[in-house]
Amino acid sequence: MPHLSSRITSINGGGSDGWDVFYRARAMVAAGEPVIELTIGEHDIGTDPAILDAMHRAARAGHTGYASVPGTPALRDSVAARITQHTGIPTGRDNVLITPGGQAALFAAHVACCDPGDRALFIDPYYATYPGTIRAAGAVPHAIPTRAADNFLPDRETLSNAAIAHNATSLLVNSPNNPTGTVYPRDALEGIAQAAQDHDLWVISDEVYDTQIWEGTHISPRALPGMEARTLVVGSMSKSHAMTGSRLGWIVAPEPVIEKLTDLATNTTYGVPGYIQDAAVFALAQGDPLEDAIMAPFRRRRELALGILGGQNLVGHIPCQGAMYLMLDIRGTGLSGEAFANALLDRHRIAVMPGESFGTSAAGHIRVAMTVADDAFASALGTICAFARTLAPAG
């Protein structure tokens, strides 16, 4: 047959996509084996029935045809109002493009900012799809390493050096961070903003976990001085409203960027189903009480985890300030994150993500999703710590 394009065959960079342990666990589950899955950020509570009822009403009312490609006016207005309220930056309908989930928004944002061959920076550790998304958009990904000792926070000097060394066009940041749980403080974000302005970078800010804050404050780079005109914010209903399967996200950006992104959407996704958008309008209208209820299990499980981890001294952890994950340091066992995760799955049927799935900076760590019932989560985390003790070298 004719050959496939180099763009699509190079998405994974010639290696693994980072999901190998996850695929193994799912194969076990499909074969009927009981596995506690602590791998992906999938809520265990499901989408609120009231949101599903709103979706059903909208579909039954006939909103099943083509919807406006950049998003329905009602939803764009709702997202704009939410962004204005949360960040203090006046945002209107024309600053918003609705996308089929946050992942599609990440791809579209890089297509908007990068020409083929441009260098696109991102922070290591990173969400596993970042480098592949950048390659799919035709750009060249470059990871900026961080250190566990610094809670995986980037510093301005390293950012500036990377921008110069790679003649970069864009910088992708993510706070609250997946996989580390770190919430970027103001000084780190100011360093990002200064580097972006010094080196004329677009900043693509993945803020899908902005409602899951356990310590500190979420600050959007777009809200910092001089950044509104060079920042594209990626958001989503997936984490804030447990609507992962509804595939409803957005990009917030300057109006000229949204105009061109609408051209891209017209020629790729052709918009998002109207009845799903209507359900999102309903969900956003419920305000903080609904969002608080959705994030409450993760706040609770974080407290459980801190108690369990505080009772031992072998498995370390990066302070979990936000998002639905723990980043655990298992270097004391002498194993890599990948080796530990595979052994844990084989011996205890507990599935976690190796740190190496998220870059070289997270080697020797594992990411644990707090996405099962409290008692099962506490039991699994206790087993992880006990298993680590059996692996630790004597003395």
From TrEMBL:
Enzyme class, first EC level, given as a word: transferase
GO MF term list = L-aspartate:2-oxoglutarate aminotransferase activity; pyridoxal phosphate binding
Q: Which CDD domains match?
A: AAT_like
Q: Which cofactor does it need?
A: pyridoxal 5'-phosphate
Catalytic reactions on record: L-aspartate + 2-oxoglutarate = oxaloacetate + L-glutamate
The record's comment on protein family reads: Belongs to the class-I pyridoxal-phosphate-dependent aminotransferase family.
Q: What name goes with this protein?
A: Aminotransferase
